[in-house]
Amino acid sequence: MRVFVAGGTGVLGRPLVVALVGRGHQVSATSQRSANLPIVAALGARPVLMDGLDAAAVRHAIVEAQPEVIVNLMTALSGPSADYGKWLDVTNRLRSEGTKTLMSAADEAGTRRVVAQSASFMTEPGSGPADESSPPYLDGPGAIGSHVRANIAAEELVLGAPEIEGVVLRYGFLYGHGTSIGPGGDIATAVLAGELPIVGDGAGRYPLLHVSDAVSAAVRAVDHGGPGVYNVMDDEPAAQAEWVPYLAGILDAPLPRRISPEEAAKKLGEQAVYYGNQLPPAVNAKAKAELGWTLEYPSWREGFRQVFA
After folding, report:
1. What is the per-residue DSSP string for 114-127?
2. Which end of the chain is more exposed for a tag (fewer CB within 10 A), N or C?
3. Angle at CA of residue 22, ends 19 and 23, nearest 5°
4. Contact between 163 and 106 (Cβ < 8 Å)
5. Rounded Cα gap, residues 152 and 148, in angstroms
6. Helix axes 211-223, 13-22, angle to 10 degrees
């Protein structure tokens, strides 16, 4: 099968390309940096230079490749996240503008299925355990709302193409090598330094996901399951008040301090309050049942120990 991976050199892209090549697929994979093209070739895929916000380049790359399936993993999250809103700006554009161009090119190329990355951490506070039908936090404050709206816009584009099977994978917070919750990552470094506080009661339930499990879900979605949205996270939604001290213990780091939601909003931003103290738990039953997806790391507890061993 001809598979086109948009964003083939990122944290998910590289292992996904390896997995797809290993299953015998003919894989084309993109990078916006020419220096990364030899990496793609070394993974066994056909390298493609493509900026996801360059409409002409996206159309040319996809129409030339004639893929049966596209996996869209394009983000711009590799830099520091000190200013949360600015950090998300380009990714939000890739979700909205980039997805629109990609879906148009996919239709022109006769692509049968598009598998697109989205996020599971965007449900309205107080909505209870979140499944795929739970209301998104579209009116969330500041950068939260803008990111949720960009994700939902992308999802609607993927699901609304009449001739294409649209599959949306709402990933949880990724952890593992190369992520912010991995050795040398921003969050792990902050925990190690005792600089990641617990907000209020720390009741926000993070949907965590090991990188290898995120990759296996994408592999399954290439040729399993019907069109639609799938929550993709582990089996144990993690309260901030549990996972941050747990990671601190693994790292032999100081126990985290607590700060009020008001202080967190002022010093860290509204997203710190939402994720740390308001985010509802999410469930993954649909992905397991319909994609036939199984987790290598059902709990972040064992996953953290593997990553930071």
Report:
1. EEEEEES--BPTT-
2. C
3. 90
4. no
5. 6
6. 50
Nearest to 275 by CA among 76, 125, 80, 100: 125
Q: Are residues 182 and 176 in contact, defined by beta-carbon separation less than 8 angstroms?
A: yes
| Predicted confidence (pLDDT) at residue 77 exceeds the cutoff of 80 | no
**Which residue is listed with tokens 């948009």?**
6
DSSP 136-205: B-TT-SHHHHHHHHHHHHHHHHHHT-TTSEEEEEEE-EEESTTSTBSTT-HHHHHHHTT--PEETT---E
Report whether 91 contacts 117 (CB < 8 A): no
Q: What are the structural domains, with CATH classification, of the chain?
A: 2-175+208-234+283-296 (3.40.50.720)
What pTM value is reported for the model?
A: 0.96
Q: Torsion angle, CA of 20/78/40/158, rounded to 10 degrees? A: 50
